[in-house]
Amino acid sequence: MARDADEGAAAMRGGSNEKVEAPPVERGAPRLTTAGRPGTQPPEPEEFAARLKTYEGRAAAVAGVGKDAVNLPMIRHWCEAMGDASPAYTGPDAIAPPTMLQVWTMGGLSGHAGRSDAYDELLGLLDEAGCTSVVATDCEQEYLRPLRPGDEVRFDAVIESVSDRKRTKLGAGYFVTTRMEVRVDDEPVGTHRFRILKYAPAREASRGRRPRPVINRDNAGFWEGVARHRLMIQRCVGCGTLRFPWLPGCNACGCQDWDTIEASGEGTVYSYVVMHHPSFPAFDLPYVVGLIELAEGVRIVSNVVGVPCEAVRIGMPVRLEFLRCDEELELPVFRARDVEPVPVVRERGAQ
Which of 64, 95, 259, 264 allows an S-S link to 146, with CB 3.0 to 4.6 Å? Predict the structure, then answer.
């Protein structure tokens, strides 16, 4: 390819076959991409993977301290948002829901001062390699004893693993797993593993198309229903509990047998956020991401459409409809009712 470029340059000078010597380019040195934007010289895959592996076992956070002690107001807000009415989380003997373990370690918008240089270096290397996007993929938690109001949480974290290069529908990249050990005083109370994917966005995302949903054996039936303009809810065969999103087993009784019912499409806005940042080619800012409580009692995260963002309110009645994003993708969204409608703007890049 370099030879073709040299010959093309010679032709522009008048057809000379004289070889043009280009200056050497160091691996990782800044260059201009074909799109004219700053980029980097791609690293050799094997050498780069080996370099990433050297970060395994290094600290990700040292001597972190929770910004707030475990407290009842945060527990109450969490339980209201999750719809968890367990009496264990109220009253003078209340404990914190175990799944709040990460909450007490989060730094908020201002972040934590204890994040290590090694972790920042690792993310910087991935950025330089073109893996500039990030998505959280999953977490695993282990609980050693309940947290109670007044507990002061401390933690340390380590870079547990960096995967080999993986290809996903979002794009190719690397899974980075950190393991956080949480304690109160010197007593271990839990472990939190958190995994992210640092990836180079696939071409379809860069053209302004919405990211494709990840479809697997546990949720394939839901997406088959969407293709038929039906919103399907799982129902446990054992106890009849409805659940959403789709899961392989029932959280109420543990039964793994299930069937489905079709949602009526009626619902209300249980909670919502207006997205102003970050900018992404597939979405026109601002837009509303709502937590919709369906008439059947389960909740689904989706967009609220058809009204200005400032008109959305908690408790607003909404009605299901299906939005054609492009030639391959339709998504369930919810149109506000009892307000003056506003036409849905077609997603940028949709066909």
Answer: 95
